[in-house]
Specification:
three-stranded antiparallel sheet, about 15% helix
Amino acid sequence: DREWSYRKQDIEVKNIMKSIPASWDDTKFISGYPGESCTIARRSGQDWYVASINGDSTIKSSVLDLAFLDPRPYTLSIFSDGENPRQIQVAKKDWNPGEKIEMKSGAKGG
């Protein structure tokens, strides 16, 4: 990505990008296959960050299992592909143990 594509994002996207840690206390491979997709979860302190990337040129749907989290309710901040390749959508979701998260990744997105 180019610097200008981040400069055009909403303030909420810019703030989360600035706050992502540079070092991690734990890393978990969730799913993926080389050249196709990858989902990784990383923890810094008590906060988890989960990221997925779609290496395919078609839109993909998948289900994220957060069973590795402590069994308690969480509020998720979800940043996902927008309507065009340079847009990032932001949403909040309450999550309860055992619940799966449906994800949709744009072509070559994440």
